[in-house]
Every structure is written in C-alpha cells, then in structure tokens.
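Key idea: predict the complex, not the pieces.
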Amino acid sequence: MTIKIALVTGGSRGLGKDMALSLAKKGIDVILTYNTNKVEAEKVVSQIERSGRKAVALKLDVSDIKSFDKFISELLISLQTNWNTNKFDFLVNNAGIGVTLPIPQVTEEAFDNLMNIHFKGVYFFTQKSLPNMNDNGGVVFISSGTTRFCVQGYSVYSSLKGAVEVFTKYVAKEFGQRGIRANVVAPGAIETDFNNAAIRNNPQMKSFVASQTALGRVGKADDIGSVVAFLCTEEAKWINGQRIEVSGGVTL
Ligand SMILES: NC(=O)c1ccc[n+]([C@@H]2O[C@H](COP(=O)([O-])OP(=O)(O)OC[C@H]3O[C@@H](n4cnc5c(N)ncnc54)[C@H](OP(=O)(O)O)[C@@H]3O)[C@@H](O)[C@H]2O)c1
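Result:
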C-alpha cells in the first residue's frame, strides 16, 4: 500500500495538533507547520514517530504570502529526503487566530491581518500546494460555526471563514477532474488557546456555550481531529464540496 502524506498548517497546538495525531492514527504520515512554537511542534513530531508513523515540522507564516514559494521549495526537499517523493496527498488548512473586535473597533490593519491569515493566505497557499499534490487526494478547510450563527465581535473573522466556505466549493469544482476532493469542517467553540483561550478562561462563556449545545458541553480538540482524518481516507471518497459542522449541535 502506498503511504499517504498530509500537510497540516498550525499543527503545533490546539485543533491542528489533534488533527496531526488523528491522521497518524489512520496510518497517514504528517508534515505539520508551526509559526512561533517550534518546540511544541517537535513534540507533536516525536509523538507521531513514537506511534510508528513518519512526521516532520516546518515553519510557515500563513499571512506571509510572499514566503510561500520558499516554503514550497523547503517542502519539496523534505518530501524528497524523508519520503523519496515530490508530492503529498492531503492539505489541511487549519492555522488561524481569534480576535474579538466589535464592528466599530475594526481597524484596517486588524482587518488586513485577519484577511491575510484566514482568507488570502489560505487561498494562495492552496493554489501553490495543488500542483505538488497527488491526484485523488484532498483539501480540508477549517471554518467555524460562526458562519451559520453570529458571535458578537466576530464580524471580520466569520466573513472570511464564509469566503473560505465558498472557495472550498470552487476547489472541489475545478480539481474534481484530478480526483481531488475539497470539504470544510466547521467547529463550534472548542477549548484551545484560541482567542486568548476565551472558552477555557471564561467560566461564564463556557457555561453559556454549553447551555446552547444539544450535547451539553463545549468542544475539545479531540472532537475535531478525527473528523478531519476521516475526510482524508477512502471511507470519505464520495464526500465533496461539503460543509460539515462539528459542534455537538450548537444553536440548533
Ligand atoms: N478553538 C475554537 O473555538 C475554534 C472554533 C472554530 C474554528 N476554529 C478554527 O480552528 C483553527 C485552529 O484553531 P485552534 O483553536 O487550534 O487555535 P490555537 O490553539 O490558537 O492554535 C493556532 C495554531 O495556528 C498556528 N498559527 C497561528 N497564526 C499563524 C500564522 N500566521 N501562520 C501560521 N500558523 C499560525 C499556531 O502556530 P504556533 O503555535 O506555532 O504559533 C497554532 O499551531 C483556526 O483556523 C480557527 O479559526 C477554532
């Protein structure tokens, strides 16, 4: 059986870390990227290696679009050195940040930063990755429950995630002829470092979100990774161009 390789952006912490570990559990090798947390990223690599799969961590700032060509060159060297190939199979566009900014407080600078990380970076990173991916692979985009319901202060973030959801369908449409599938996973509120650990550090918000969730709690990182990993398997071969919300049934 040919080994499959997945690239997960922002795999050093939070949801991306769980995605990387879950992919490895499915027998998929992983290239994970970090922005600032090399030490944490290397710990994820070691954990995957201990489980018997191959993993590598590379540095990537998804907001620095001009750096993508250099990143792809490094990626190709890593693929050649570690896997003796020049292609990977699955791209998981996960890296991101959270900021609470009510509309009157949004500056052009804050808007541009969120835009570069959550949409422009995702768009061009995907564009530059696709020629280096095998046919019959896939792209998983990470959106948010907040494209379906509104959370105060998330206007820019959620609008950009909405753009990602539309882009997903275009990737599915334009790359279907290569057998490449594109889907969106939209998590509800998950207890990670996201947005200054807003859920973890704010008991009031945590119990409010839990009260609005059919399953009666907020999400944990390991509620999400397994769904992303599933989308990168043959079992999901007919799922394409879809948004899958993974939120325990919030605001139903
Ligand atoms: N947590 C939630 O409630 C929630 C809900 C819905 C959707 N999401 C989405 O899920 C994704 C992951 O969120 P999370 O909760 O796992 O956040 P997190 O715990 O804060 O982790 C963020 C990850 O993204 C990386 N990252 C941040 N800025 C980056 C940049 N400019 N370039 C490259 N990598 C960057 C970080 O790398 P370093 O550690 O190296 O800095 C880290 O690996 C995001 O797209 C977020 O919008 C989260």
